Amino acid sequence: MEYAFIASGSSGNAFFIRSGTTSFLIDAGVSARRIEQALKQYNTSPEQLTGIFISHEHKDHIQGLEVLMKRYDLPVYMNEKTYRALPEKLKQHLSGKWYEFPTGTRHRFEMLQIETFAVSHDAEDPMMFRFVEDPLGQGLSLTFVTDTGYISDKMKAAMGEAHVYVIEANHDESMLRVGSYPWYLKQRILSDEGHLSNAAASYVLSELLTEKTCRIHLAHLSEENNFPDLARLVVEQTILSDHGRDVRSMLHVASAKQPTAVFTLEPNHIPAGTPSPR
């Protein structure tokens, strides 16, 4: 399994994942040009994608989709409520290309299984993803969760026992409260349908962390209400305090501005003796 962050932040989001000949974009929230350039770095192109998944209808997750649909004949997967909430002009370009992928379902594309689950965000039917690759029964897994105001027990069950976690660490609460955002926007972000803080992300990761966890990515950071080093420090200290485990070498922070290199998850990354995921 290979994956990379084309962009991750309040200004735009796009994630790339590949398993064998299967590859997807998760969201297209930056320009088509940026997506094309990043995919070229990953030795692929939009034409070679298996498809695009859309998590929800907010602009920072769809703003590049219309141009991509004009240029390429790609299937786009989302749930029905998300499709209904899209701008009418975009829906015109999705005619014949949109395929329903309901929240709470799973489908297999060759060796890559994709599972969706509901999250708590102020969109029509926001959903996030768990990817399981099963070469030779190894069950490599990656859980991807951003854009949620809290993590419920049901969500934890859907997220659990992954080898890789991508989780939102959107803001530092103190920075947000004293920052320049208008009060209504602060209330939105802090609400149960807003975004996870650094502290909230660290508590969830501490609960979910197992011996099989080999990489953690902090995503969707606010450029105004957070710092990468601060987010990293909060997570490192929480996990060290709760588990006595130093995760500095396995912790990464995704950028809103620059695409990452490709990360690879292989069977030899799995600690010996750990069970395969469900």
Structural account:
It is a single chain. With 278 residues, this protein is α/β, with parallel strands linked by helices. It has one domain: Ribonuclease Z/Hydroxyacylglutathione hydrolase-like (Metallo-beta-lactamase, Chain A). The chain contains 10 helices and 14 strands. It is globular, with a radius of gyration of 18 Å.
How many discrete structural domains?
Answer: 1
Poorly predicted runs of 5 or more residues = 271-278
Shape call? globular
Q: How many strand segments?
A: 14
Could you tell me the radius of gyration in angstroms?
A: 18 Å
- Work out the strand percent: 15-25%
- Output the CATH class name: Alpha Beta
Summed over residues and divided by their number, the pLDDT gives a mean of 94
Tell me the CATH superfamily: Ribonuclease Z/Hydroxyacylglutathione hydrolase-like
Note the gap between the termini. 17 Å
Element pattern in H and E: EEEHEHHEHHEEEEEHEHHHEHEE
Give me the CATH fold name: Metallo-beta-lactamase, Chain A
Largest sheet properties: 7 strands, mixed
Q: Provide the CATH architecture.
A: 4-Layer Sandwich
Specify the helix fraction band.
25-40%
> Structural class of the secondary elements?
alpha/beta
Number of helix segments? 10
- Provide the spatial order of strands within the biggest beta sheet: 6-5-4-3-2-1-14
